[in-house]
Amino acid sequence: MVDAEGADGGGALARLRDEIVGCRACPRLVAWREAAATHPPASFAGEPYWAKPLPGFGEEAARLVLVGLAPAAHGGNRTGRMFTGDRSGDFLFAALFRAGFANQSEGRRLDDGLRLRDAYVTAAVRCAPPDNKPSPEERDRCGGYLARELSLLDNARVYLALGAFAYEALARTPPLAEALTGRRPRFAHGIEMPLGGSDHPRWLLCSYHPSQRNVFTGLLTAAMFDDVLERAKKLLDSG
């Protein structure tokens, strides 16, 4: 197994990272992530696998926080960093680079030099799930980590949910849950919700998940995702 880079910053966020990495609370996910490492596809045969839960990564002072579903079995579960080493990550980091939120357009491995700028990437569930489908119980069990992570990212102004699963997780997570009570619309690409805050207003944006299937079928295009990131930049500038 490989060593992973922790989230940028130290202190409480670094301690939370260590706690996440050591978690074994979901037996089904533990078994799946470790089986993926033991029986990789031929294209990754012989490569070391991370095969543990993944913390988020990026700048601790980030104003943009992106939340995905979960690591891919042979992507983040292999490399040890969210959205790294798979097609979803290829799409995501290229877009973040175009928008100025990343210093390069690729994220292939831990030592590739990728750094996020004013952005932080995390997920609703920290272990690779079978068929990319965590159960509601697994989502809720991981929800405490997401809530604590968001509370430590106290400079965040825009939260971007990547897919309906992430949207549901965020809607159940403080501090967003309180702001969305009683007025939450059905998930759709491009929807935007103010979360309040007079001194430092916050927003929740939604995008289809940049999965290989969504991109290949044209449900999500690079132009569509660029538009969402451009809107995020405008909201950040307005606040």
Describe the structure.
- This protein has helices at 12-21, 27-38, 76-79, 87-98, 136-152, 164-171, 176-180, 212-216, 222-238, and strands at residues 57-58, 64-68, 119-123, 158-162, 192-196, 202-207.
- The protein has one domain: Uracil-DNA Glycosylase, subunit E (3-Layer(aba) Sandwich).
- Strands 1-3-2-4-6-5 form a 6-stranded mixed beta sheet.
- 38% of the residues lie in helices and 12% in strands.
- Strand 5 (192-196) and strand 6 (202-207) form a beta hairpin.
- It has 239 residues and is α/β, with parallel strands linked by helices.
- The chain has 9 helices and 6 strands.
Question: Care to give the gist of this entry?
Answer:
It is built from nine helices and six strands, in the order H-H-E-E-H-H-E-H-E-H-H-E-E-H-H. By secondary structure, the protein is α/β, with parallel strands linked by helices.
**Strand residue content:** 5-15%
CATH topology name, in short, is: Uracil-DNA Glycosylase, subunit E
The tally of strands reads 6
Low-confidence segments? 1-9
- Helix/strand class: alpha/beta
- So, CATH architecture? 3-Layer(aba) Sandwich
Distance linking N and C termini: 43 Å
Largest sheet: 6 strands, mixed
* CATH class group: Alpha Beta
Keyword list:
Uracil-DNA Glycosylase, subunit E, 6 strands, 239 residues, alpha/beta, globular, six-stranded mixed sheet
List the helices and strands and how they pair.
Blueprint: H1 12-21, H2 27-38, E1 57-58, E2 64-68, H3 76-79, H4 87-98, E3 119-123, H5 136-152, E4 158-162, H6 164-171, H7 176-180, E5 192-196, E6 202-207, H8 212-216, H9 222-238
Parallel strand pairs: 2-3, 2-4, 4-6
Antiparallel strand pairs: 1-3, 5-6
